[in-house]
Amino acid sequence: MNIQQLEYIIAVDNYRHFSKAAEASFVTQPTLSMMIQKLEEELGVKIFDRSQLPVLPTEIGKRIIDQARVAVAQVNQLKEIVQEEKGIVKGVFRLGIIPTISPYLIPKLMQVHTENKFDIRIVISELTTDQILKGLSNDSLDGGILATPLKEPTIKEYPIYYERFFAYISPTEKAIYVKNSIDENDLTSSKLWLLDEVHCFRTQILHLCNFKKRRGGSNQSIFSYEAGSIDTLINIVDKNDGLTVIPEMALSNLSEAQMKNVRPFKNSTPVREVSLITRKEYFRERLLYILIDEVKMAVPKSLQDEAMKKYVVPL
Length: 315
Description:
By secondary structure, this protein is α/β, with parallel strands linked by helices. Strand 3, helix 5 and strand 4 form a beta-alpha-beta unit. The relative contact order is 0.15.
């Protein structure tokens, strides 16, 4: 048994396809298949059920692959510890970012990272919170940028900035459009457009307007459509009616005319905390803090006030 064999079974589990796993591992499919078969013979068990497409691990195979991920991650950490000790900061950081943050953060973060010229390659994937947590657990990701606090025992959170929520209102909503600011009750007095259920931003808005406490009441009909992105929500309001809630970073993408549709909240300052998260055992601290500093450089200083933490809306 060797590390290469463990890496191969992890690749097959990730891709659920021998040919794609071989391509990702930069070997031929016969080589990868032969190495996995030798491992199975050594262990005396079948790791994969090859009769199914996509290829699936057997029950014992699942346990072996889970342990293989731990072993490979620990070997990589040994190499990273040595690099850190030598003052070498380079390599790949696989980063997941949730869709309600990525459109506003990634363009500026790419610019900052390019200008800094570190020998670090950031591989970014747009993923939901659940997908990021799964990626950290199976070692397909090194970190994630998302809304916190998550209160996950295996995760370490590094809060970076605090982003206020704003209402975005159609001019057809005359009763609240005339207001300079709105309160949470206004969210339930008109048609409220939301993201679909995979987005944690949706959960925060439901908390904000206490919809869960009102479930079953007459206000249930206000949630008539669920969109996939904040830009879609804005376009729906622009071309129809109702209102939605958007994060502060989204304001930079609005036109002068669209900014007239934005209203702050008057009785509270609802905020989301945005953090970089890693597994608790992630050791590459120098690389990690370089990335955190770059994110801070990519967002306005006004969003980095830790005093705003007390206004964070629960997930």
